[in-house]
DNA sequence: ACCCAGGGTCATA
DNA sequence: TATGACCATGGG
């Protein structure tokens, strides 16, 4: 990963979209719940689910566990996969309480905390890194589908590398700058939602000059297939 | 009607 | 290691 290029891309996206002040949420626990609910799901759907949890006054690990799984499913239904996510939320809350809550979890170093998060059923690498960065403010880079698409179209990555490979290459450039890691993932997501769509479509791409066709990032040809 | 969304698990080869 | 099926709602 070219350090100068990455920083240039960050600066342009940041000037245009930022500051975003992520993650939306009133507490660390709410961020964690949101990270699970937003798996492969539009955030607007997650907002409805979280609003339901708040209205029912059950947005705490104890209250969620005290809820019959079927009722939990009804509350989070707007976020999709509600049977799966109901089970995942319960697994996470049980783990969270077993571990002793947020204060105790905060005492672990980042590597240990990450390993612990990944041991929870329903918490994969991206969800774990969402939680580490946005709930615990640890210096990790979150890799998601938007990241792969953007870096791939910019020729900065293959796009289908292993998660850890892409994460490490970005962290090697950014270092332990938590505010920058926070903002970087945020602007990549917002840019992805607004402009860098799966299908060729250019709105007002701030990376216009990166595009050889002069029509914006979305008119980039598909990533070149790598030779075996 | 179709595409997409801030993934993860599990079975299979 | 690496595919593929599966999970489900809501907005454009």
Structural topology:
Elements: H1 3-17, H2 28-37, H3 43-55, H4 61-66, H5 69-75, H6 82-98, H7 102-106, H8 110-118, H9 125-134, H10 145-153, H11 163-174, H12 178-194
Helix pairs in contact: 1-12, 2-3, 2-9, 5-6, 8-9, 10-12
This protein binds a DNA duplex (13 and 12 nucleotides) through helix 2, helix 3, helix 6, helix 9 and helix 12.
Could you describe the 3D structure shown?
Helix 2 (28-37) runs antiparallel to helix 9 (125-134). By secondary structure, the protein is mostly helical. The protein contains 12 helices and no strands. Residues 211-228 have low confidence and may be disordered. The chain binds a DNA duplex (13 and 12 nucleotides) through residues 23, 34-36, 38-46, 48-49, 77-85, 88, 121-127, 130, 142, 144-146, 162, 185-186, 188-189, 192-193, 197-199.
Summarize the structure.
The chain contains 12 helices and no strands. By secondary structure, the protein is mostly helical. It is globular, with a radius of gyration of 19 Å.
Please report which band the strand proportion falls in: under 5%, 5-15%, 15-25%, 25-35%, 35-45% or over 45%: under 5%
Order of helices and strands: HHHHHHHHHHHH
The Rg value, from CA coordinates, equals 19 Å
The total of beta strands comes to: 0
Poorly predicted runs are: 211-228
Mean pLDDT: 89
> Percent of residues in helical segments?
55-70%
Structural class: mainly alpha
Separation, N- and C-terminal Cα atoms: 21 Å
The biggest sheet amounts to:
none
Count, helices = 12
Give the overall silhouette: globular
